[in-house]
Amino acid sequence: MKQKYLFVAWGVFQIFALTYSKSAFSEGADGVGNGGDVLVCPGKQPGETRYELVDYYEGKVLRNIEPDLGPPTLSFEEKVEFVLRRLEVKAPNRANKYRVWFNDFLGEASFPHGIKLVDVPDTTPLVIPAGCEVRQAAVQLKDWQLLPGLTRYTFDGDIWDQLDSTQKAGLILHELVYREAMEYGHSNSLMTRYLNSLIGANGLKDYQTDKALHDLFKQLQFGFVDLSGMWIMIKKHNSLKFHPNGMLAEAKYYTLWEGQFPVRDGMFSITEGGSVSLYTDGRLKSYNVPLDRDRNKKQMPVHLDAQGVKIEFISGLAEFREDGTLEYLRVQGDSDIGRVVMTGRHFKIDIWQASAQRDSRYNSSVATFYSTGIPKGEMLVKACESWIFEQNEWRPLFKIELNPDGTVKNSETFSAARCEKP
Q1: What's the pTM?
Q2: Cα–Cα distance between 225 and 361 in angstroms, integer?
Q3: What average pLDDT score do residues 39-55 get?
Q4: Residue 5 clears pLDDT 70, i.e. is over it
Q5: What is the pLDDT of residue 257?
Q6: What is the 3-state secondary structure (H, E, C) of 366-378?
């Protein structure tokens, strides 16, 4: 009996907190969390009741799109994953964001029965069927509203039990989409319902160009969009340029957040704070990231792992040929900023500042590359961490010059007495 009283008390506290949150903060976008809604309608048979997510009903009636969350035999968890895998094709970073949240979903959700969630006035459906009513099926709290004992997502357990796997998955996806929307200050679910119904119907496939995707998410008032594999910030000013074919041509500084580009025999991983330019087919043309002079701010390095060459630098410029091979690298800043690591059959090179060539305009080191990915010209290397195998032993390198095929053209070594051999 004591446990029963404790449960009732917890339920009252949860509902009170949700109600208080709504009434106290409903005036601003930073206040109440979102509530996912369903339509409760008479069924075909007397006494039968039908439940449908408002998002999917609006999609069918207003835009003639039907939800497709996979075969009916899938569980709601499998249907969510089905949608996220499909979303990865057009929006890999957004899909990953939702998947991280979904992985924690069951640990952040509660399903109390015998309650009625207080209506959150953020839905205002555009249309509802005659004879149906809108019911609050879920309420979501923001991070700052998560008081001890509360869960991020609270579902009406009685409604939840009546939903099939498609409607359950759709309701969860609604909460994931709205969780992102709240990060951008959305105070109602209109944009969330539109995007959720679009994702549920695989509607993003119809947006064939970067420009089309950008314009969609800008109109939906979302802060970021996946373009050509990058997570890009949508800004009001003209920070992006597009090719005539609609594909992204340029993303300026601090618009680009992160992304990965396939290059010849490898991958180029970029980070926030740089600018990027692309060829018309979406392949990487250049990436430029300035040096932040604020030493208290840690800049994340950029990584290139391709054609047997690993390159890491924090600031500088990398330019690529149309075939995906690295052509030019300018590493900017102090001597510990840039790093190039290469390994061949007879050498292991750890190069700081890439090359002996200097460009005083940028306080930087410059290297050009053969189409094979091998740096041209003589290179200064890091002592005791760069080696060459000569005369049946490993010797530490001081300088080296390579042929286009990666074989050694010239090298200069020194005594290995003070170095630990590899």
Answers
A1: 0.77
A2: 35
A3: 91
A4: no
A5: 63
A6: EEEECCCCCECCE
Alpha carbon distance 80, 132 (integer Å) = 27
Question: Which among 285, 298, 365, 276 is positioned nearest to 329, based on CA atoms?
Answer: 365
Calculate mean pLDDT across residues 126-144.
Answer: 90
Q: What are 329-360's pLDDT values in tens digits?
A: 877 654 443 455 555 555 555 554 434 444 44
The answer to whether residues 283 and 292 touch, using CB atoms and an 8 Å cutoff, is no
Q: Please give the distance of CA 333 from its chain centroid, rounded to a whole number.
A: 29
Which contacts of 163-166 are long-range, i.e. CB under 8 A and separated by 24 or more positions? 163/38, 163/51, 163/137, 164/72, 165/69, 165/72, 165/74, 165/75, 165/76, 165/78, 165/79, 166/67, 166/69, 166/72, 166/76, 166/79
Q: Is 132 helix (H, G, I), strand (E, B) or coil?
A: coil
Cα–Cα distance between 205 and 199 in angstroms, integer? 9
Spell out the SS3 assignment of 338-389.
EEEEEECCCEEEEEECCCCCEECCCCEEEEEECCCCCECCEEECCCCCCEEE
Rounded Cα–Cα distance for residues 332 and 314 (Å): 8
Q: What is the rounded distance in angstroms from the CA atom of residue 420 to the CA atom of residue 337?
A: 24
Match 């695989």 to its residue by tokens.
202
How confident is the model over 360-372, as pLDDT tens digits?
444 456 778 888 8
Question: Rounded to a whole number, what is the distance in angstroms from the first to the last CA of the chain?
Answer: 70
Extract the tokens encoding 320: 């690529």
Instruction: Choose between 334 and 217: higher pLDDT.
Output: 217
Write the pLDDT tens digit of every residue in 251-261: 876 566 667 77
Q: What is the DSSP letter of 145?
A: G
